[in-house]
């Protein structure tokens, strides 16, 4: 079972998954650091609890099979079997996601995968103090849930 744990250091969240990969520690859970960057909030509709935005999630984890590989694109042979977290914005309503190819970030096997999201998220807002109300955009991110 995967979960997103809150990181109080301010550097992002940890996404832990029991999914496996090839390599010396394939049976161990992966720890994934998530860094969210919000680029644009273009439309806020308080009555419908909707916010249009553009953002990027950068996910970092250590891939044991890539330790010692030079920084840059993941080698073609390794990219096919590369473990990747199943990550989504859970409160996305009409959200498009485009994934960048994973990169080897450093020789210790750190991998970065970036996903750019653009569209609408569900964001309940309290408008009882209108016109003096304030709002926070909450992004619920984590593992891909099955949707029946």
UniProtKB/TrEMBL annotation:
GO molecular function: extracellular ligand-gated monoatomic ion channel activity
Region (Disordered): 1-27
InterPro entries: Neur_chan_lig-bd, Neur_chan_lig-bd_sf
Pfam entry (one): Neur_chan_LBD
Stretches assigned to the Neurotransmitter-gated ion-channel ligand-binding domain: 26-136
SUPFAM superfamilies linked to this entry: Nicotinic receptor ligand binding domain-like
Cellular-component GO terms for this entry: membrane
Entry superkingdom: Eukaryota
Protein name per its UniProtKB record: Neurotransmitter-gated ion-channel ligand-binding domain-containing protein
Lineage of source species: Eukaryota, Sar, Alveolata, Dinophyceae, Peridiniales
């Amino acid at each position: 079972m995967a979960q997103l744990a809150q990181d109080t250091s301010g550097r992002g969240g940890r996404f832990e998954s029991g999914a496996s990969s090839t390599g010396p520690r394939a049976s161990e859970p992966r720890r994934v650091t998530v860094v969210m960057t919000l680029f644009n909030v273009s439309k806020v509709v308080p009555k419908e609890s909707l916010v249009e935005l553009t953002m990027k999630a950068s996910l970092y984890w250590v891939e044991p099979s890539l330790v010692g590989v030079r920084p840059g694109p993941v080698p073609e042979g390794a990219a096919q079997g590369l473990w990747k977290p199943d990550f989504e914005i859970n409160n996305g309503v009409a959200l498009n996601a485009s994934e960048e190819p994973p990169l080897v970030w450093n020789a210790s096997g750190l991998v970065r995968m970036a996903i750019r999201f653009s569209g609408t998220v569900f964001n309940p807002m309290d408008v009882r103090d209108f016109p003096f109300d304030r709002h926070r955009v909450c992004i619920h991110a984590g593992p891909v849930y099955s949707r029946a």
